[in-house]
Design brief:
Layout (H helix, E strand, L loop, with lengths): L21 E2 L6 H10 L10 H5 L33 E12 L11 E14 L3 E13 L5 E13 H7 L12 H21 L18 E3 L4 H10 L22 H4 L5 H6 L18 H5 L10 H16 L4 E9 L9 E12 L5 E11 L4 E10 L4
């Protein structure tokens, strides 16, 4: 391809048509939740401490709201990356979540119904013509309860143009002093202590006001080790754990070295190491510098789905176990690179009773690195109990 166009015509045939649903082979286990919150740096006792959870609202361990995406076979990306775009790669561009009330517990079996939604092509400084493609993930439990809807956005771009334009620099990890690292740990604990102080108590809608700021949440510095830990918390990365859809990654336009055999049920029985997208396939750019550069990234970088989880956990941790995130729309502007730290802030911008009679606060959330570079923004509605 010598021109600078992006042919997305093949995508049209998939829009609005349901794909094969995602299903785990066995019921969920409490350790799945523990592994998830540990990987997402979310030490909320409600999701990993048996004794604490038993004394609370739910009487047992419960999954965090962010966990739904872990029950998919491709961290929510499946319905927003179907169709051929030649010599392309993708990164996450954002998520919009709606939560309907039911929670996920050990023993549950979750089905995700996936439906491609729409796409649009825009010019970007990163890769020229870029496809912003959206797809819906609808999560249900074994009783048919509608748990959540996730509308994911994939940013699909010409891999060769991203490398040619070289819009992202800073190929070396920043260095942190011992004092700076100690300050980060202190700042992290402030958010953790806020959750401990609230405990099983209620954060009342009546007691918060427009203009209130949530405590800062800090994650990082990110490393290849922390990113690999995140990857392993997604259940579909475990050998034999998922009913594999048998996706042909080459049919999406991934080049041979990035297509691989991820989600290939035949290869999983023959040589499962080749089915792990982190080692071979579309996700290898996250963990290996040489592969990151081949898709236009300066160094290894984090997962968009994890950024979405960080935001949901941030807001839900503040709300407490008697509150819940009911809606959150996040836009990702840049990934979490190795060596960087992530800082989340949020401000209450409105208080209202919504159309469903729920007492909610609306918050604006921002995610930045240590240099103040904006990584993501989000607007969310959080339901809180009333006195």
């Amino acid at each position: 391809m010598n021109d600078k166009t992006l042919d997305c015509s093949d995508l049209d045939q998939y829009m609005g048509k349901a794909m094969a649903p995602a299903r785990m082979k066995e019921p969920l286990h409490n350790n799945d939740f523990r592994r998830w919150v540990q990987a997402m740096h979310y030490p909320n006792l409600l999701h990993y401490d048996h004794d604490f959870a038993a004394e609370g609202r739910f009487g047992r361990l419960v999954a965090p709201q962010s966990f739904a995406v872990s029950t998919d076979d491709g961290h929510g990306a499946g319905p927003c990356c179907v169709g051929m775009i030649q010599d392309s790669h993708l990164i996450f561009g954002g998520d919009e979540w709606w939560f309907y009330g039911p929670r996920i517990y050990g023993g549950d079996e979750i089905v995700n119904e996936k439906i491609p939604f729409d796409y649009a092509v825009k010019q970007t400084s990163f890769a020229g013509p870029t496809c912003f493609q959206r797809g819906d993930n609808n999560y249900y439990n074994q009783d048919g309860d509608y748990i959540a809807k996730q509308r994911s956005t994939a940013i699909r771009y010409r891999r060769d143009l991203a490398v040619e334009m070289d819009a992202l620099d800073a190929s070396e990890d920043p260095e942190w002093t011992d004092q700076e690292l100690a300050e980060l740990e202190h700042k992290k604990y402030e958010f953790i202590k806020m959750m401990h102080d609230l405990g099983h108590g209620k954060r009342y809608w009546d007691d918060v006001a427009v203009g209130d700021e949530l405590p800062v949440r800090v994650i990082g510095p990110h490393s290849i080790a922390s990113l690999a830990t995140e990857w392993r918390a997604y259940l579909f990365t475990i050998w034999g754990g998922t009913h594999r859809p048998g996706m042909d990654m080459a049919s999406f336009g991934f080049t041979e070295e990035f297509a691989g055999h991820e989600n290939d049920p035949v290869m999983e029985r023959d040589n499962p190491e080749l089915t792990d997208g982190a080692y071979f396939g579309p996700s290898r750019g996250h963990l290996f510098p040489v592969w990151a550069k081949r898709i236009g990234m300066p160094r290894p970088y984090g997962y968009g789905a994890s950024m979405g989880a960080w935001i949901l956990d941030y807001l839900a941790g503040w709300a407490g176990e008697w509150g819940q995130v009911v809606h959150c729309k996040s836009a990702y502007r840049g990934p979490a690179f190795t060596g960087d730290a992530t800082f989340m802030t949020a401000t209450i911008v409105d208080k209202l009773v919504d159309d469903n009679g729920r007492n909610v606060v609306q918050v604006d959330c921002k995610m930045c690195n240590q240099l103040g570079t904006v990584m993501a923004t989000a607007k969310a509605e959080i339901e809180l109990p009333q006195k």
